[in-house]
């Protein structure tokens, strides 16, 4: 890649004619009988100057031709992307509160979850609005001056909200039967559609097992005020009814 960057500035396409794509120019011949204008405006013998010009043109043409050959030898370019490195770096930043610029205070016990405003704002419009609202002059007057912005979050467990923020930053989430309902509600409330889709897929898998349904129902009751919780409850009822009919038939 360094070679390409060094070579490209040497090319000047204005020096080539349309037929000279190979990088080689034919010698230029100038008749001695053709007059040319000197710097003073009169006729002058340009045999020496023409000879010098021919050498310069030939030399420049040869050099540029070599440059083009070198570029052709480079072949196709290579694109390298290392998302794993970026994700690991972000995880490290999240583990260091000093490197973060926003803190969420979760629940009545005010558990802290740290994050990066730029990343969060680009992934969730709802969270972005919350951050910008906290940046308003009216709110800043009421709060102490701090480099890290604090935002209270209610109605979510610390494990649930931490997974939501982790997904927003890294695109990765770990959920189980005890957290999937809460994460689904948070994904719906904070408008994170990719996380919401993953949650609903996992919920369908969990609800297919009879022993999981009571646990899911209990978690749904904890988040009864959320729109997604009502949808989950409706889905669970549809799963329970056929199973009860089977048990009754037996």
Describe this structure in words.
The chain has eleven helices and five strands. The chain is mostly helical. The strands form two sheets. A three-stranded mixed beta sheet has the order 4-3-5. Helix 7 packs across helix 8 (180-189) and helix 10 packs antiparallel against helix 11.
Would you tell me the structural class of the helices and strands? mainly alpha
How many helices in DSSP terms?
A: 11
Q: What's the story with the biggest beta sheet?
A: 3 strands, mixed
Question: Terminal Cα separation, in Å?
Answer: 71 Å
Rg result:
35 Å
Shape: globular
Beta fraction: 5-15%
Order of helices and strands: HEEHHEEHHHEHHHHH
Flag low-confidence runs: 1-13, 16-24, 26-31, 36-44
Tell me roughly what share of residues is in helical segments: 55-70%
How many β-strand runs?
A: 5
Summarize the structure.
By secondary structure, the chain is mostly helical. It has helices at 2-7, 47-73, 83-94, 117-123, 125-134, 137-142, 158-170, 180-189, 193-207, 213-222, 227-249, and strands spanning 36-37, 43-44, 102-106, 111-115, 149-153.
């Amino acid at each position: 890649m360094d070679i390409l960057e060094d070579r490209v500035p040497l090319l000047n396409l204005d020096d080539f004619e349309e037929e000279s794509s190979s990088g080689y120019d034919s010698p230029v011949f100038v008749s001695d009988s053709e007059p040319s204008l000197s710097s003073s405006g009169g006729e002058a013998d340009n045999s020496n100057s023409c000879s010098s010009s021919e050498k310069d043109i030939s030399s420049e043409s040869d050099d540029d031709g070599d440059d083009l050959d070198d570029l052709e030898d480079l072949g196709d370019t290579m694109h390298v992307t290392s998302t794993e490195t970026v994700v690991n770096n972000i995880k490290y930043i999240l583990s260091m509160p000093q490197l973060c610029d926003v803190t969420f205070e979760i629940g009545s016990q005010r558990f802290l979850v740290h994050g990066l405003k730029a990343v969060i704002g680009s992934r969730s419009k709802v969270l972005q609005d919350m951050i910008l609202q906290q940046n308003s002059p009216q709110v800043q007057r009421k709060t102490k001056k701090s480099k890290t912005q604090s935002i209270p979050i209610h109605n979510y467990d610390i494990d649930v909200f931490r997974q939501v923020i982790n997904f927003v930053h890294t695109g990765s989430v770990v959920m189980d039967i005890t957290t999937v309902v809460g994460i689904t509600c948070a994904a719906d409330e904070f408008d994170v559609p990719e996380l919401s889709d993953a949650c609903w897929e996992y919920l369908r898998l969990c609800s297919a097992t009879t022993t999981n349904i009571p646990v899911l129902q209990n978690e749904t009751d904890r988040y009864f005020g959320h729109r997604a919780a009502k949808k989950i409850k409706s889905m669970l009822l549809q799963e329970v009814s056929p199973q009860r009919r089977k048990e009754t038939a037996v």
